[in-house]
Structures are given as structure tokens and as C-alpha cells.
Amino acid sequence: MDLLIFGKTGWGDELFYATLMTIVVAVTAMLIGFLFSLIFTPLKLSNNKFLNFIANTYTTIIRGVPELLVIYLLFFGGSGAIMYVASIFGYNDYIEINAFITGSVAIGIISGAYSTEVFRGAIQSIDEGQFEASKVLGLRKNIYFLKVIMPQMLRLAIPNLSNVWQITLKDTSLISVTGLVEIMRQSYIAAGSTREPLFFYSFAAVLYLMLTFLSMKLINKLEVKYSRSF
Amino acid sequence: MDLDLMLLSLPKLLSAALITLKLLSVSLIVGLFIGFLFAVLRLNKNPLISKFAYGYSYLFRGTPLLVQIFIIYFGLGQIEWLRSTFLWVILKEPYWCAIIAFALNTGAYTSEILRSAFQTIKPGIIEAGKSLGISNKIILYKIQIPVAIRQSLPAYGNEIILMMKGTSLASTVTLMDITGVAKHIVSTTYKPLEVFLLAGGIYLFMTFIIHNLIKYLEKKYSY
């Protein structure tokens, strides 16, 4: 237990901040994922074959390739790609993107593919009549989307989004390979300097369990709120 | 794009794909046994046994696979008495550590899939069997298990693909699977884009094959 003391002798405070970092990265990645699904869900549902193809390529590739590989590609290839684009605009200095941004974007791209599928499924399972009824009533497009489709879609999507959140939260552990100090990286450092890997990795597992448990409780509350019948 | 490098690394990556496939198939087979065992334990009427099975699946589904590998590979070696037992022959090899972690992980997910498959079998089917005077054993083998297999195929197909992606973590414990070899090539050539894209293409191809295999099986077992 001495190992977990807050302060200079223990690893308590380091692990505490690392846990906060894991939460921040996971939330950022989830939000980036929502942005991606905001773009790709309409493409998936569009009647245009070409737009469908773009969206399907995105979700298929991301869901068929290991998360670790996506992170490596962005971490090692990302700065090269950005420098190439910058050199077109005449900027030739070395550009380094920090690990937080690369990690969040990488996990965000992955989580976006999963949430796109969730939103697509939720919208598709809304009764056709709801769309027709709104049209018959002459509702404006944005009103009928916000007031008719959105509430029904959220209700269907929340249970599956909670799965996406769990996946995203666990995927953040992979960012440790880029050197970003989150739970996994901090445990690696602590395990290395104290020679107590069993203790620190088990403690990391406990921290992740705590995070998944607490977020499940929170999401269940949301679910109850949104599952009220109309 | 350095096409020469891509052509040069393709055979290396393909032979690494064999290791990925080996890791995947061994973990899946062991994981299927574990999953079946824990699904049965989970449906046990004794609350203590079913709680234990639930705890196992909660533990392994609530923590990242990376943590599980690190606990088994780096953590277990720290226990002194374990080093003197025959288990150490297995646990000092990163290959077996990775397989143990993968099998336990996929076992947890598989147990959930099989449990829900068994639970969704309509009681009417079993009752019909009983009223026809078929023995319990035959009901289990000829009715419950085939129906459960059919029910769990789509979810299990997803699990196979997730596990295949999971095997890339073996590269973090020095194994030279596709990801490991790709990273090694990148560290000597500094051409991340070409090599990682190529590796991604191989993974994607494997996903494609698995996906179609499951689709074929679903069709075969449909009723």
C-alpha cells in the first residue's frame, strides 16, 4: 500500500492524474467520434450510391483493421502527412503533433466508425410512418428532424452507444504506446521503477473496472430518462 | 509512395500473418471451451456458481486486453514460487502468455454470447421434445445445441473479427505478428505510411474472409 501514497514516495498522485488523463482522452475521442458519425451517418443513409460507398469504406476499413495499427499509422505517419501538406503551402519546418492529439484523433476515428453504425441502425429502425407523418403535417425539415426523429433515435441509440463508450474507454489503453501518460503508461513507468509489475498492472485493471462500472451507472440513468414512453 | 519497399515487405508481412493466424486459431479454440464452460456455469441454479461465472466475464470484459496481457506476461513472473513450478515453462514464453490472455478474454465474451443464445431458446421447443418422449440428453444435443449455435453465429463472427484485431497486441510483448513485423520494418526504413497501410490491407483481407465464412455458415445452418 505504501506504493500508492500521494506525494514523492508513492505513485498515488501520478496514477490519479493518469486516470484523469484516461477520462479526458476517452471523452475527447468519443466527441471526435460523434463528429465523424455526424458526417458519415447521413452519407450512409443517402440514396446516392457514391456517398454510400464512401461511408461504407470508412466503417469497413476501421472496423476491419486493428486499433493498434490505426494508432501507429497516425502516430508515425501523421506528422509526415501534415508536413507534406504544409510543404505545399511553403512551410518546410519540422512539425510534431503531440501524443494527446494523435491519440484522441486515432481513437476518435475508431469510435466514430462504431457510432456511425449505431446511429444508422437507430434511424433505420424508426417506423417509416413517422417520417411520412411529419411530411404530411408539413413540418419543416429541421424541426421534424429535431422534434420527431432525434428523440426516438436517441432512445434507440443510447444502449448501443454505451457499448461504444466502453470500447472507446478500453481502447485508450493502446495510446500508451505513443508515450501519452494515461493509466497504462503510468503503470508501466511505476512497474519499471519499482519492479512491482503485478501490483501496478492489477491496480490499473482495478482503475479500468472502476471507470467502466461508474460510467455504466451513469449511462443507465440516462437510459431511464430517455426510455420514458411518449 | 515507395512501391519497391511495399513489394519487398509483402512476403515478410505474409509470413507474419501465419503467426497472427496461429495466435488467433489457438486462442479461439481454447476460448470456445472456456466460453462454453462459463456459459453453463452461468446458467447454473446455484447463485454462488453463477455469480462466479458472472464475475469472470465482468472482469475480463471490463478491462482492456492490453492490461490482461501485461498482468500475465510481466506480472505473473514476479511471483517467486510460480517460477519453480512447471507452469514457468509456459509463462516465460511471450507466445503462450499472449495465448492465455487472448483465450481468457475471448472466453469471457464467448460465454456471454452462448449464454444469451441458450436463454433465447423458446421453452416450447424443449417442451415439445419432452412431450414426444425424447431423452434430455438428445434434447440437449439435437435441439438445444444446434439452435444455440445458429443463434450465436452472427455475434460469434463479430467476436472472431474482434479477436483477430486483438492479436495485434501480441506485438507489445515482443511477438512478431503482422503488427510486430510492420513496426520493425518501419523502425528500419522510416516509411510508416507504406508499411502500415500494407499491413492494414492484410488484416482487412482476413476480416473479409472471416466475414464471408460466417455468412456461409449462417446460410448453411439456417432453418
What does this 3D model show about the protein?
The complex is a heterodimer of chains A (230) and B (223). Chain A has 8 helices and no strands. Chain A has 230 residues and is mainly alpha-helical. Chain A has one domain (13-185, 196-226): Orthogonal Bundle (MetI-like fold). In chain A, helix 1 (12-45) packs antiparallel against helix 2 and helix 6 runs antiparallel to helix 8 (197-226). The termini of chain A are far apart. The model of chain A has no long low-confidence stretch (mean pLDDT 89). With 223 residues, chain B is mainly α. Chain B has one domain: MetI-like fold. Helices cover 83% and strands 0% of the residues of chain B. Chain B has helices at 3-42, 47-62, 65-75, 80-84, 87-91, 94-119, 123-131, 136-166, 178-189, 192-220. In chain B, helix 1 (3-42) crosses helix 6 and helix 2 crosses helix 6 (94-119). Chain B is flat and about 70 Å long. The model of chain B has no long low-confidence stretch (mean pLDDT 91). At the A-B interface, helix 2, helix 3, helix 6, helix 7 and helix 8 of A face helix 2, helix 3, helix 8, helix 9 and helix 10 of B.
Q: In CATH terms, what is the fold-level topology of chain B?
A: MetI-like fold
Strand content of chain B: under 5%
Please tell me the CATH architecture of chain B by its name.
Answer: Orthogonal Bundle
Q: What is the number of helices of chain B?
A: 10
The CATH topology of chain A is given as MetI-like fold
Our estimate of the beta-strand percent of chain A is: under 5%
As a whole number of angstroms, the C-alpha radius of gyration of chain B is: 21 Å
The total domain count of chain B is 1
Largest sheet of chain A: none
- CATH superfamily (homologous) name of chain B: MetI-like
Spans of chain A of at least 5 consecutive residues whose pLDDT stays below 50 are: none
Q: Any idea what the CATH architecture of chain A is?
A: Orthogonal Bundle
What would you call the structural class of chain B?
mainly alpha
Q: For this structure, what is the CATH homologous superfamily of chain A? A: MetI-like
Give the H and E element order of chain A: HHHHHHHH
- Described by its quaternary structure, the protein is heterodimer
- Global outline of chain A: flat
| C-alpha end-to-end distance of chain A | 52 Å
